[in-house]
């Protein structure tokens, strides 16, 4: 039974949703859609309307759901189409939120207070020279993985970035979760490191949500992601338990490679090998980019984020190298 459920969810992950991945919304299209949504959903209680705004078919479903919702107003029901619960009875609807220019905030996956301007002045050439045996093993392992990924992706920069982000968003979540559990077990503060690592995971996931607006993963790439996640999550979980010092160093080197990859991506955009298309709407809001921002701007801010993750993880490893625990050094939080 468990096998059947697992097989069905894997098949669904592989074959559903692909239709939405290559769609690029212009700001104007979103504004037009916002007007439509506002015309039909002008009351509260519908916090899921923009849950997946990059998928037009789902938006169509949501219109359908809304008319049903009106019929069932003031009741708590389950919608058979998407299993969303009408929440008006419980008073937990999302307040109406606006952008600074007064337009309605279209996202539910992040709020205006989660947005920021990336520090693009960060040094993208910094490198931690491996000194100890652990450092050298971590560095060589990452370089080996790099060779494999270059062989697979070659010059498909967008696809490479998208696949990289599915892995890059794992370590912060695993590290944050393990520090969270440690804090509970030992009745100790974390020094802000739980938050810092979870912020990193969330930021990486937003990189993925951005890249997936530009690249359509094929079925075999989806299969690769599922397999890689199954292997990497478990590997990193054990790795972090055994040696957080080595795990953070390993991630520091992964982030160095991410910076290199995004630099190559930028070079390809500048040289014209990759078309400098308009930035996805989600990126414009998340990084507070100008409305006419392009892919080049997006890759520039993502690269700055990766450079920041590089520094955070090498710093974390250095703390362990000094024989201290992370909580003894204030965590770098609030960067994104
Ligand atoms: Fe990333
Ligand atoms: Fe990163």
TrEMBL record:
EC number: 1.10.3.11
Cofactor: Fe cation
Residue ranges of the region described as Disordered: 60-84
Subcellular location: Membrane
Domain of life, per lineage: Eukaryota
InterPro entries per UniProt: AOX (IPR002680), AOX_sf (IPR038659)
Catalytic activity: 2 a ubiquinol + O2 = 2 a ubiquinone + 2 H2O
Name recorded for this polypeptide: Ubiquinol oxidase
Similarity-based family: Belongs to the alternative oxidase family.
Alphabetical keyword list: Electron transport, Iron, Membrane, Metal-binding, Oxidoreductase, Respiratory chain, Transmembrane, Transmembrane helix, Transport
Biased segments, Basic and acidic residues type: 60-74
Cofactor, how bound (note): Binds 2 iron ions per subunit.
Pfam families, per database record: AOX
Coiled-coil regions listed in the entry: none
Sequence intervals crossing the membrane: 161-181, 223-242
EC class name: oxidoreductase
Gene, per the UniProt record: AOX3_4
A single GO molecular function term of this UniProt record: ubiquinol:oxygen oxidoreductase activity
